[in-house]
Write a sequence for this structure.
């Protein structure tokens, strides 16, 4: 654990951060994807990671449960070093729920069986107990009556909510989400975000890669903007989304918040000092200025 995380562990009553990523680098061959990432997530925090395609967001998320092995640096989950070659990674992974863009449900199993299979095989729960827990979690995601359905009979949004309920049925201590709504039709996004909002309100620790800026703005404890394998900004959503300090963040936000203007080479401007609600985020993004590099950037 780093000196900083030790200090924070003391500040949080002796509990280490739920996730502590320290100087993580990851290369695929010659391609350096992560170039020294430091990031901590405390219990109950919702940290949203935003950034352009290819900036390394998914790779970073996958380093947390060692779906990718960092080239160097350390990752701790609840005080356990997952990058230690001797770690019992299966035991650590049982504490981590992960929800991907693709729902990865078993198509030949009913919703109920999708929710109970890992509970029974991995956690050794009896059928009755697994089904009781599954029903409770289907209720949590608003699908109490769909246990007998097969995934193909459900909408994408419903399938994603089943995937979330499946993760929750394993009683995770933290949840990783990698663009959970980006494969969905726009009208189905809201229900999935509502479920995630509910989880956040219940105090679930969440690390979420997302392009949903209103969600990040409203729900995140912190927003992390990544670009080119580094963390460019990390702070309160009002700061990072509402008043970004770096031109790279401003450029990204202007593209995300107004893709049409960005593709025309026009970047939305805002009167100096303008502020508003999440609904007027676009106006809050400062006008694009000359490219500048912040401290700590290559
Ligand atoms: N398993 C892999 N093997 C080789 N290269 C990879 C692998 N996974 C990711 N990369 C490369 O790493 C870089 C970062 O990819 P990553 O998926 O982490 O980006 P991202 O920020 O999640 O992008 P997106 O927003 O498009 O999902 C890309 O150049 C990608 O091609
Ligand atoms: Mg990705």
């Amino acid at each position: 654990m780093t000196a900083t995380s030790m200090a924070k562990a003391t500040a949080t009553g002796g509990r280490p951060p739920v996730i502590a990523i320290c100087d993580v680098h990851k290369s695929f061959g010659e391609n350096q994807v992560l170039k020294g990432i430091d990031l901590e997530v405390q219990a109950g925090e919702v940290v949203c990671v935003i950034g352009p395609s290819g900036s390394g967001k998914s790779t970073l998320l996958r380093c947390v449960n060692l779906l990718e092995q960092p080239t160097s640096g350390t990752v701790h989950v609840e005080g356990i070093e997952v990058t230690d070659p001797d770690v019992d990674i299966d035991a650590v992974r049982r504490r981590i729920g992960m929800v991907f863009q693709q729902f990865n449900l078993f198509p030949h199993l009913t919703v109920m069986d999708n929710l109970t299979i890992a509970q029974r095989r991995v956690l050794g729960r009896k059928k009755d107990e697994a089904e009781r827990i599954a029903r409770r979690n289907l209720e949590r995601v608003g699908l109490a009556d769909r246990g007998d359905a097969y995934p193909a009979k459900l909408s994408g949004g419903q399938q994603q909510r089943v995937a979330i309920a499946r993760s929750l049925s394993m009683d995770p201590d933290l949840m990783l989400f990698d663009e959970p709504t980006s494969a969905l039709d726009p009208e189905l996004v809201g229900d999935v975000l509502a479920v995630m909002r509910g989880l956040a309100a219940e105090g679930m620790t969440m690390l979420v890669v997302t392009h949903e800026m209103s969600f990040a703005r409203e729900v995140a404890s912190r927003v992390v903007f990544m670009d080119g394998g580094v963390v460019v900004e990390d702070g309160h959503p009002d700061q990072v989304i509402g008043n970004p300090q770096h031109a790279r963040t401003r450029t990204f936000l202007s593209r995300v918040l107004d893709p049409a203007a960005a593709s025309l080479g026009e970047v939305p401007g805002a009167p100096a000092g303008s502020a508003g609600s999440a609904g007027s985020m676009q106006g809050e993004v400062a006008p694009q200025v000359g490219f500048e590099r912040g401290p700590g950037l290559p």
